[in-house]
Specification:
This protein is of the alpha+beta class and 285 residues long. It has four domains: 62 residues, no CATH class; 41 residues, no CATH class; 75 residues, SH3 type barrels (Roll), CATH 2.30.30; 72 residues, Alpha-Beta Plaits (2-Layer Sandwich). The protein is built from ten helices and twelve strands. The strands form three sheets. Strands 7-6-5-4-8 form a five-stranded antiparallel sheet, with helices on one face. A four-stranded antiparallel sheet has the order 10-11-9-12, with helices on one face. Helix 2 packs across helix 3, helix 4 runs antiparallel to helix 5 and helix 9 crosses helix 10. 15% of the residues are buried. About 2% of the residues have low confidence.
């Protein structure tokens, strides 16, 4: 379509049959492309003017696209990444679109496409299963990675609603394992399978765990340390506090900071960190 405009500009009055033949496409494809070109221009008040109802094509007001151009390497890479993301978010039934994407890759250059691979932040198939479960009011079985416990758990959940926070998707659901309402980050769900079981009776959000508040000092690697502590962190200076339900996660995070983070309050956690460090050092002797 990028080549159509300059070619028509230099071949005013060409027949649709000859024009289709020049580009190796059918007349129906050509007419579809010409109709699309109606929407091209500098702005919505300055669009290309095409006439082809008589079977002969003329074009006016196409100064912005009347020169033959080729895509830059950066433009090609951007398009290939976009095609990769679209393909990986497609359902298994859309083989027609997969074929179109393959054809576009071929036109853009196989050499570049072989070295590119884009992965969506979250699996479109998993989102589709969650939405279907919500509509049909059924349970789903998920494998979920928990960074606080550093493990993958298997759960049966009843999705209640999807939400977005800080650019990430979350699903609030009733979890059979916890017998309570829980919120899961969608990109941490490894797999999701729709079950025949009907949705569980929901319950208010509860937790039997006690919130642990700990005072810390960040002495170096400030940006990395703050990112490690994430949304559990409060405070802007070197002296901060962390609120978490999982002391094991906090202990691992402090140890992995390699001395950049020091626990100043909570003798229990300080003792646990010292014990883990001592046992770890013994493994190297």
């Amino acid at each position: 379509m990028l080549d159509l405009v300059p070619f028509i500009t230099s071949h005013q009055g060409i027949s649709t049959k000859d024009l289709a033949s020049q580009f190796g496409i059918t007349e129906d494809e050509l007419l579809s492309d010409l109709n699309s070109l109606w929407m091209c221009g500098d702005n919505r008040f300055d669009l290309i003017d095409l006439q082809f109802d008589s079977g002969y094509v003329t074009i006016r007001n196409a100064q912005t696209l009347n020169l033959i151009r080729s895509l830059s390497q950066q433009e090609i890479i951007s398009i290939l990444i976009g095609l990769d993301l679209i393909e990986k978010n497609l359902s298994a039934e859309r083989l027609d679109i997969v074929g179109e994407i393959a054809a576009l890759r071929l036109k853009l250059g196989q050499g570049t496409s072989r070295i590119l691979d884009a992965t969506p932040a979250q699996d479109g198939q998993i989102v589709a299963v969650i939405k279907k479960a919500m509509v049909e009011q059924k349970k789903i079985h998920i494998s979920y990675f928990s960074p606080t416990d550093d493990e993958i758990t298997e759960r049966d959940i009843t999705p209640l609603h999807l939400s977005v926070s800080d650019g990430r998707d979350f699903v609030t659901a009733f979890c059979d394992s916890a017998s309570a309402q829980r919120t899961f980050r969608v990109d941490r769900i490894q797999s999701a399978v729709l079950l025949d079981a009907q949705a569980a009776v929901t319950a208010p959000s509860t937790s039997n765990q006690e919130l642990i508040k700990t005072a810390l000092i960040i002495s170096r690697n400030i940006r990395r340390s703050r990112e490690m502590l994430g949304s559990f962190l409060t405070g802007d200076g070197a002296e901060v506090s962390v609120s978490s339900y999982n002391s094991e996660w906090l202990s691992r995070t402090v140890i992995s900071a390699a001395g950049a983070i020091e626990v100043t309050e909570s003798a229990e956690i300080r003792g646990r960190i010292a014990d883990i460090a001592t046992r770890t050092l013994k493994e190297y002797r």
